[in-house]
Structures are given as C-alpha cells and as structure tokens.
Amino acid sequence: MLDYILRRVLYAFPILLGVNLLTFGLFFMVNTPDDMARIHLGAKHVTQEAIETWKREHGYDKPLFFNAEAQGVAKAADTLFVEKSLKLFLFEFGAADDGRDIAREIQTRMWPSLAIALPTFLVGLLCYVSFALLLAFFRGGALDTGGVVLCVALMSISGLFYVIGGQYLMGKLWNWFPISGYQPGWAAWPFLVMPVIVGLVAGIGDSTRFYRALFLEEIGKDYVRTARAKGLSEPRVLFRHVLGNAMIPILTGVVVVIPRLFLGGLIIESFFGIPGLGSYTIDAIQAQDFAIVRSMVFLGSVLYIIGLVLTDLSYTLVDPRVRLE
Amino acid sequence: MKPVILWSDALLFLMLAVILLLVWLLRDQESLRAPWRRVMRGRMGAASAVILAVYVGIGLLDSLHYVERLPDAEPGQAAQYSGEVRSALDALLTPLREQVEKTYSAPFATHLYVKEAVTGPDGVDIRDYPRLRHGGAHLVDPVAGFWPDVTWRGLLGLLGGGVAWGLLWLTLGRSPGSASPGRSAMWTTLLAMFCVTGLLVALAPHYHVFGTDKVGQDVLYLSLKSIRTGLMIGTLTTLIMLPFALTLGIAAGYFGGFIDDVIQYLYTTLNSIPGVLLIAAAVLVVQVQIETHPQWFETAAARGDARLLALCAILGLTGWTGLARLLRGEALKLRELEFVQAARAFGVRHARILARHLLPNVMHLVLIALVIDFSGLVLAEAVLSYVGVGVDPGMNSFGNMINGARLELAREPVVWWQLAAAFVFMFALVLSANLFADSVREALDPKAKK
C-alpha cells in the first residue's frame, strides 16, 4: 500500500513537469514577457526602456532556458523556467503582477471557497443519489419518466441562468438573502446559503440522470435477480445490493473532485462576490495576471493527482477484491 | 456585392460537403441506415431533429457572407467595398437590423423604456415616454389600436404559417411509407415551427417582439445572429478534436506498450489541468497575439472570426482526452477479438487492420460522443464568454447576450427581455440537441436498452 502511494507520487512528477512545460510554453514562449509588459503598461506607444524596467521589476528579465552569462549551475538555474515554473514545485508561487504574495492570497481565500464548495458537494451528492435511487425504484413508471424529462430540461439550461435567476428570486424579489458579498467567520452564513442552493439546483439534472443510469445498469444484473428471487424486499435490494455495487462507478467520478473543492467554483464565486480562489482566478484572467493563472493551473493539477490517488484508495474501501500492489 | 468567405465559413461548408459525400457514398449500406431510421422513427428523435435542422438552416444562412459595394465616388474608379461584412441572414432580416431604437424598449412596446423631453400636443415640453421610431409606429392610437392590430397580424401570421405547412404536407406528407410515431411527431413539430415563423414574419417588422437592447437593437435579430456562433462552437470544435481523439485513442489501445504510455501521459497531463483554466490560459495567449497584430485582419468580422476559430481550436485541443480514453478502452478490447487476431495472423498490415477492422467498430462510440458533446459546447460558450475568454466581445453570441443583460436586472422596472430571449433560443437548441443525442445513443449503442 505504502509502496503503491509512493509510486503514484513519483509518477506525479512527470505529469506536473508536463503541465509546467505547457503553461510555460504558453505564457513565455508564445507570449513573450515583452508582450506581457506591453499589456500591463497599457499604452500603445511604450518605449523599450519602460518594458525593460517593468520586466526587471517583476523578475522577467532573464533568458528562458539557458543563461549564457551566468557561471556553472547558474547557467541552467538562473533562468525564467527555473524561477517562474520549477519553483512552483516547492509551492513558491512568488508575487502577482500587482505585487501581492500569491501564497498568502491562496491561504486566506481557500476557506471561503471551501465554505461553499464543500456543502454544495456533500448535500449535492446525497440529494442526487437519493433522487436517482427514487427514480430507479419507480423505473418505467410515470414518476421516472417525468423525472427524466425534468432532468433533461434542467440540464439544458445554462448555469448562468441558474445564478441570475437565483439571485433575482431569492435576493431581490423575496429578499431572503443578501445578493452578494461576504463576511469572515460565522457571520458568513447568510452569504453562503444562496450560492449553495444555486449550485445544488444547477447540478441536479446532469448528476441525477448519470446516477440513475448507473443504478439501472446494476439493476439489470444477475445478482439482483438472485437477490429478488431469494425474496428480499425491493428497498433492501436497492440499498444493499444495487447501491453497494454502484459505489465503484460513483466513487470514480466523485472522489477525484474532492481535493479540487479548495479551488471553489469560478462562476458561482464571482457572481456572488465570494472572495475565494475561484473569483481570484477569474479576476486574474480578466486582469491578464499570468503569474496567478500559472499558479492556479499548477495547484489544480496537484489537487487532481491527489484526487486520482484518493480514488484508487477509496476503491479498496468499497470493493474487497481491489488490492493496491 | 462581393462574396466573402471567412475561415469558419470555409470549414463549415467543407464539413457539410464531407458529411453529404459520406452520406451519399454510404447510402446503400443497410446496416448504417437502420440505426438512423430508428432515430427518426422515435418521437423524440424526429421532433428534435426538425428543430435542430431549423437552427442549422439559420446558421448556414448566416454563414453566407458578403460585402456591399459602395456607390462610386467618381466614375471610372475601382470598385470600393464596405468594411462591414454581412450575411444572407442579415439581408433577409434587413427590417429587423435597420429598425434601431434609441435604447431599451420592452417586447411589443410602443413607447421607449426611459422618459425623454417630448413636445406635447399643446406645444409644451414635458417629460414622458416617447413613441418608438419603429415599434408600433404605424399605429395611430397606440393604446386603443394595439390589441386589435397585434391580434389581427398574429392571426394572419398563424394562418400563413398553417397554409404553408398544409401545402408542404399535401406535396410531401402523404407519400407512401410506414406510418410511425416519428413521422407524426415530425409533422407536428414542423407545424409548430411554421406557425412560430408565421407569427414572427407577421409581427417582427412592425413590433420588437423581444424588445430592444441598450443601444436599441432588436433583440430577436441579435438572438438569431447568435445561433451561428453557438453552432460553430459545437461543430468546428468536434471537427478539430476528432483526428486527435481517433488516432491517439485507437493507437494507444491497439499498439499498447510505449505508444500507449506516451499517449496516456499526454492525456493525463492535459486532464490534470482544470478545464476552464487551461482554456482561459490558451485564449489569453491568443487574445494577446490578436491584439498585438491588428494588421492580420482586414475587417472586424475577420478578427472576430479568427478568435472564434481559435476558441474552437483550443476547445478541441483540450477536449479530445475524454473520447480518446473511451476509444483506447474499446480498441484494447477489440484487439483481442478473433477477427482482428485472424487478420494479424494473415499478415494484414497494421494500417489496414486499423482502418478496416477497428475504425468501423468504434464509429458508433464516436458518433454518440459527438452528439453528446455538442450541447455541452454550446453551454460552455456562454460560460466562457462570461469569464471573458469566450468569443470576441463584439460578436453576437448567447454568452455575450447574457453577459450584457445580467446587470440590467437591477434596473427598475426590470429589463428582462434580453435574458428571456437568450434563454428561449438557447434552451430550445440545447434541449433538442440533448434529446437528439439520447435518441442517437439509444439507436446506435448496442448495449443500450431497446
């Protein structure tokens, strides 16, 4: 088991290196630091001097991969690739273009993100799986057909409409919650309820239909027929046998996203004014602050790989046949 | 008038030509026709296919671009062309395009949304809602004359639509063939589409059916123009994604070993980057390139088109992983089957095995994945445009429409019609795409329950 985890961690390095090379290529080779400086300095007629100054101030005045002027190891080390890209492996994110420390921002913004993403995820999973079980229980009946039609209709609506509609109804018309904003600590909860509800409703169509399909596939299998033939009640068959065996495909899709909950939701956060990582990223994209985007890409990949390892580990919990060698 | 072929138009028509050619070449293959007949025989499949066809029709009309010739300043001079690229759809919708108001007006309004100083009948300036320049301008008395006029025109439009449908049905609808639920569903949907079109044709030139936006443009016109963008994103992306997914996915599964390792590494790496972020990063780079090289593009339309294509390319290059993984798994299974083993034992070359034995056996998966992806891509466009990494902000798209409209909900009274129009048009497109995808999956997937 430990062996396995160790191997997976080692295997993560080439992937993260690939991710870094990709973003580095995008942000430094296709788009040179000169282009970047020009965007931030704004005006169309910028002098080369101003560009050089900006690059020096933000640490972009080095060669890409190979520093011919330096001595010894520094030939390879004192370059943009090492400074800006490889240092991410040590979680040294450096400073954003506006001068603020990215690592500190991530640490403070992580919690509001989690405060929305975690309840949405947990309550969502519970709701969607129960709805899907309900539909599967009444399969072929009017409730099932109606439910599936509703699911397809719900998943055909753009997520933006859920946010706008939710804000309009709950925030403006009924005045239940503040439309947007955030306060630290326990005072945050009125600001959190609406994003969570909107997030839940937005995911209902897709997920319920997905889980229902999983359950229906299990229901068609022989062991379910055997269980019924033994005289077990339908709820017992559904909960013990079908749900238990459907756990593997459910976990495959679910566990991998858990670490990513830290990153929060891009759309939800920026619409509701939550100072989390999602809105941080969106702001960075809109301000073309590539340092933040690079850091978030790296962080996202790390969390994804952690999620993959967790998924494998979770299989051993639900399926005794799975052994990690 | 001079036709202009934008890059995306060329690709779209190329794709259309290839599809038509394939359909024509394979028209006699009963095994290929049967599933499609099954799709069209179902109620959902037939009805959604009709609606999708209407959307595609509008999108194609909007892809026939041209520039207007300017009146000659002096005789004998070389012809000058306008810098504004229009499409056949623009020409059809000329009244809608040209009937621009000052600012917002509600659907079917006869008066503007905001008060202005107007000269009253007695010559005194008062602040009141002025009459619209075009919406309901033909009414003498906008209060008393409104309902009779709308009802009359509406009925006439419905009648026109109904008659046109009836004529079509008389010529085509009674042709011999098996009656199926799909057939009647198709004709019912067609009737509905004809009636809606009739209504719009009768009412839209005289009223703003979906109101007007901030700068007074007709929202119905904007919605119709947005359709092409959504379709382009949905189709061109798959066109770009398909070669990657097919070659890499099948190669990984069939050859295994080192090739498999490399391809798996590639898609794990791509997958590990959060989707929106990767797209955002790539779009930002393209955006900077476009901004720093204005000399590449002659017209604003060409620039918007380049950005649309870039977006499709980016979505395609980042989106092939899912299908590739699916195909890898399938190829892995097929590789061990007897007919492939036999072909290998006979010494058939790899290329031939791949083309003759593997490819036809994964095509149903590919088709299913493509129709399922389509609706997701249309939805993705809206989100990406909101984030600021979607299509050009000057381009008509559902995302830009929603984006422009969302802040206006805070106004009093609420400006809801832009959102409503975007919602209706998008919902109809995505819903029919989803339903169509379901029918296709049911018909093509041998594992799906009949």
Description:
- The complex is a heterodimer of chains A (325) and B (450).
- With 325 residues, chain A is mainly α.
- Chain A starts with a helix and ends in a 7-residue tail after the last helix.
- In chain A, helix 8 runs parallel beside helix 12 and helix 12 (266-272) crosses helix 13 (277-286).
- Helices cover 70% and strands 0% of the residues of chain A.
- Chain A has two domains: 2-90, no CATH class; 106-324, Orthogonal Bundle (MetI-like fold).
- Chain A has 14 helices and no strands.
- Chain A is globular, with a radius of gyration of 25 Å.
- By secondary structure, chain B is mainly α.
- Chain B has a single domain, classed as Orthogonal Bundle (MetI-like fold).
- Chain B has 15 helices and five strands.
- In chain B, the strands form two sheets. A three-stranded antiparallel sheet of chain B has the order 1-2-3.
- In chain B, helix 8 packs parallel to helix 11 (300-335), helix 9 (257-272) crosses helix 11 and helix 10 runs antiparallel to helix 11.
- The termini of chain B are far apart.
- Chains A and B meet through helix 1, helix 2, helix 7, helix 8 and helix 13 of A and helix 9, helix 10, helix 13, helix 14 and helix 15 of B.
